[in-house]
Design a protein that fits this description.
The chain is an all-alpha fold. The chain contains 16 helices and no strands. Helix 6 packs antiparallel against helix 8. About 50% of the residues are buried.
Length: about 325
Amino acid sequence: MPSRAVFSLIRPFADPMIAVLVLATVLALVVPAAGEARGAAQSASSAAIFVLFLVNGVRIGRGEIARGLANWRFFAPLFVWVFAVMALAGWALGAVAATMLPPLVALGFVFLGVLPSTVQSATSYTALAGGNVALSVVGAALINIAGVFISAPLFAFLGGESGANVGIEMIGRITAILIVPFIIGQAIQGWTREWIMARKAQIAWLDRFVIGLAVYVAFSGAVEEGLVRMFGAADWAVLLALVLGMLGAASVGAWGLSGVLGYRYEDRIAFLFAAVQKSVAIGAPLAAILFPPPIAGFVIAPLLLYHLFQLIVAAPLATRLARFQN
């Protein structure tokens, strides 16, 4: 129906996360956090990230983790796709981008490639397409947990000399801000999970606030370093083309692999969205920890564009997949 087609096209722009990202970027361009304000903003961002990962530890049930690990036939290929195939694709695109774009923006493709899936949108679009929602939730959740431990060292390895210096001090920061609160959340979820799960709407806004704050701090530093002056129309065209190329190739590849593996149609849909959707919820906080703001703003540029396009593409794709299933 025409109305359904129109809805599928405008659905991504109704996502509050898009508004939050746009607002954070515009604020950074107009009123960047500089000087003493930058230090205060960074401290606030780190505290908010700690709280977010504490909540994540509470809301991801231990039973879900156990069920996902037991379904190795789905989880193992998904793990390899996200942290090997996509990581290498990001590294290859970074090499191409380095010939045309500023080095830190090119490095952003490596960073994009090593990030885990995003749970919320992968699950939402799996449901819209009539896929296996339970499998999508567990698969994306497990990939997110793995990403907390894997993405930073993998990025440092693939990024080479240009990558983040993930030494003892940086590992300590990642552990303190991401891993420790997640473990605490897992430990206390027996007393707190019911309370958290009853407040999903408020928790969703916590996610958006933390991501928006991390993006604002990162782009504030990039604006001070001359992001606007360094990027012309041709640079934006190249960046957009590379991001769309990565998204398109990832979607075709993930769908093809799920067919080769012999998954049921519903499971193929779950695999597609869990494999291709990249998490700004992990990416923005992780960039805020790994890099000072002048660098982080450049590095996350490909991620923010990819996140926008993955939402725009996912809605009509999910509608089309649902139509084929009926």
